[in-house]
Amino acid sequence: MLNVKLPGLDMKNPVMPASGCFSFGKEYGDFFDLNLLGAIAIKSATKEARFGNPTPRVAETTAGMLNAIGLQNPGVEHILDHELKDLEGIDTPILANIAGKQVDDYVYTAEKMSQSPRVNALELNISCPNVKEGGITFGTVPEIAAHLTEKVKAVSDVPVYVKLSPNVSDIVGMAKAVEEAGADGLSMINTLMGMRINLKTQKPILANKAGGLSGPAIKPVAIRMIYEVSQNVNIPIIGMGGIQDADDVIEFFLAGASAVAVGTANFVDPFCCPNIIKELPEKLKQMNVDHIDELRGRSWGRC
Amino acid sequence: MINEKMLITKNTCIAPKIYELTVQGDLVDLIREPGQFVHIKVSDGTLPLLRRPISIASINRNTKELTLIYRVDGVGTKTLSLRSQGDRLEILGPLGHGFPLDVINQGETAVLVGGGIGVPPLYELSKSLSKKGIKVIHVLGFRTLEDTFYQKQFEELGKTVIVTDDGSSKFKGTVIDALQLLNLNYQVMYACGPTPMLAALENGYSDKPLYLSLEERMGCAVGACMACVCHTVDEDDEKGYRKVCSDGPVFKSGEVKLSC
């Protein structure tokens, strides 16, 4: 009753940890069997290794957190040779997130990554708010996002998902632009730009000043955007933004998501993903639903 | 490491804003070395959302209890201070790598330097060193005499010099001033406290083995979120960084760059 099939991702359940919130899986593999997960979205890979931003890189907010990690990762080659090798023992599909400063970086990383037998699909990060070049600029102008999607699609051996930024005025326009450019699916939403100021120092808490807001605080924004986009595109959506429990997963399906990703909640409870997967069948039974797919888009109808 | 709902057996104020929290459970059996920490969900809801990392001040394996000493400084620690005896607290741990005990031999002397809320993990360290037959000297800095805690407990284990910013203890100044004056003969130094204090120790006392426990804002505390990283001093290091939560929080002086 939980299995879902998305382009490149044949998932035994619709729950995956979100990119950037699960590293490359090893740390959480100490807590539970990674085969329990529907898929794993691994941390962003870039062409070169990146250290990321100075600390502090995280700040807590009401029901959420700000982060400005800055895409720290060991570079695509290292990830292929080490981090992905470590995941060979498990059969959970891998959604490999990629990022870059310019189009060529994305194309280089996408080509390399998509050739790995361990990678089932790519997730284009065009919405990272924490890097000076690239990142979010690709995610705010539909023509630029579409151009990048086309270029990456041309070199990728696996389906390509585009991770959308909520920091735009017309999310539907953006979604349609990347769909037309050939995207096989969408991930939404990435973090919302935010800031916190320390009352003692009277300066921003994050060294990067601004950061991306995640956690339960952004869930209504994600739900609204998925509700609107899912009714205007024909490609599946991996929904994310503040998911903490099975009820949240159901709400994302009702809004129009075809699978979900859990981000910040992993930090609160390392067992969050397996717990949600365990709770879902009972919730569906209570709703008289045989398969979770039946819930998708149920909120769309008029009252 | 496990995530356990531990029983609160004590949560009391022992100095202005300073609380001593004792919890009981199986997690205690897993603690390997002094200087490790736990990650606490201080409330069941989303206020606050994230856990709070707090170092372990002492353990009692017989009663399966561990003691944490924390300062009420924000919404997380404020909420924690309101939890009462008999409640259960969700605690993840033990986490990180603590102070090494095998770098010093029986009969030798260790100097333990602490500043403010950096003092607590030194207590379990001092107990462990004493048990090994190592002579311990404590140099502990606080703002005022009123802010001091655990003075008696430390004195029971070895010579203890309390330093205060305002001179309300016998010794006025910083722990660095005190160390210069005392000119101690020792083999290994261990320290935990504010980063400027650790940097000053690194500057003046790296000629002998020196181990520093760092503090950093954390997200996951298990090495996944990359919030608490610091650069290595060695620029040719393969990774170029260390995670305070899972590679530390204790590092040998000279391994990582201190940011202050």
TrEMBL record, chain A:
Keywords in alphabetical order: Cytoplasm, Flavoprotein, FMN, NAD, Oxidoreductase, Pyrimidine biosynthesis
Subunit structure, interactors included: Heterotetramer of 2 PyrK and 2 PyrD type B subunits.
Gene3D superfamilies listed in its UniProt record: Aldolase class I (3.20.20.70)
Subcellular location field: Cytoplasm
A GO CC term assigned to this protein in UniProt: cytoplasm
Binding site for FMN: 19, 43-44, 97, 125, 163, 189, 215, 241-242, 263-264
Source organism superkingdom: Bacteria
UniProt source species: Terrilactibacillus tamarindi
Function noted in UniProt: Catalyzes the conversion of dihydroorotate to orotate with NAD(+) as electron acceptor.
Name this protein carries in UniProt: Dihydroorotate dehydrogenase
Automatic annotation (TrEMBL), chain B:
Domain FAD-binding FR-type positions: 1-101
Co-factor: note: Binds 1 [2Fe-2S] cluster per subunit. Binds 1 FAD per subunit.
Alphabetical GO biological process terms: 'de novo' UMP biosynthetic process
Binding site for [2Fe-2S] cluster: 220, 225, 228, 245
Top-level taxon of the source organism: Bacteria
Pfam families found in the cross-reference section: DHODB_Fe-S_bind, NAD_binding_1
Single GO MF descriptor: oxidoreductase activity
Residues at which FAD binds: 52-55, 69-71, 76-77
Cofactor field: [2Fe-2S] cluster; FAD
Keyword Flavoprotein attributed: yes
Pathway: Pyrimidine metabolism; UMP biosynthesis via de novo pathway; orotate from (S)-dihydroorotate (NAD(+) route): step 1/1
Keywords attached to this entry: 2Fe-2S, Electron transport, FAD, Flavoprotein, Iron, Iron-sulfur, Metal-binding, Pyrimidine biosynthesis, Transport
Keyword Transport: yes
Role this protein plays: Responsible for channeling the electrons from the oxidation of dihydroorotate from the FMN redox center in the PyrD type B subunit to the ultimate electron acceptor NAD(+).
Family to which this protein belongs: Belongs to the PyrK family.
Cited PANTHER family: DIHYDROOROTATE DEHYDROGENASE B (NAD(+)), ELECTRON TRANSFER SUBUNIT, DIHYDROOROTATE DEHYDROGENASE B (NAD(+)), ELECTRON TRANSFER SUBUNIT-RELATED
NCBIfam families per the UniProt record, alphabetical: PRK00054.1-4 (NF000799)
Subunit structure and binding partners: Heterotetramer of 2 PyrK and 2 PyrD type B subunits.
Protein name: Dihydroorotate dehydrogenase B (NAD(+)), electron transfer subunit
Source organism per UniProt: Terrilactibacillus tamarindi
Lineage: Bacteria, Bacillati, Bacillota, Bacilli, Bacillales
